[in-house]
Amino acid sequence: MNTHQIDLTLFSSESCTPCQALKHRLSLWHQDHKNLLVHFISIDEKKDVAAKYGVLSAPTIIVFIDGQEAIRAAGYFSLDELLQKVERYESLF
């Protein structure tokens, strides 16, 4: 029984073109990983949440496992590599 929670959060901005592409790819990826929670947060609308997590730019992805930050990627990063890391964590539980 999986008692661990994995949350993937994309912090994005309306003016961030790569953010829109990431949001689309994450939505498609999430269809095969329904046991994970995926959140999309606009840093334009939720400045307080972005500040709470130290998000200074978009795109930023933070992966939380049981509420603790496990992975962070910001700016230019490989989404495929990040998702492979998430899948490795997922396979542990």
Proper CATH architecture: 3-Layer(aba) Sandwich
N-to-C span: 8 Å
Which percent range fits the helix content? 25-40%
Number of strand elements: 4
Overview of the molecule:
With 93 residues, the chain is α+β, with helices and mostly antiparallel strands. It has one domain (6-92): Glutaredoxin (3-Layer(aba) Sandwich), CATH 3.40.30. It contains three helices and four strands. The protein has helices at residues 17-30, 47-52, 79-92; strands at residues 6-12, 37-42, 60-65, 68-74. Strand 3 (60-65) and strand 4 (68-74) form a beta hairpin. The chain starts with 5 loop residues before the first strand and ends with a helix. InterPro entries: Thioredoxin-like_sf, Thioredoxin_domain. Pfam families: Thioredoxin. It comes from Intestinibaculum porci.
Task: Please give a quick description of this structure.
This is Thioredoxin domain-containing protein. By secondary structure, the chain is of the alpha+beta class.
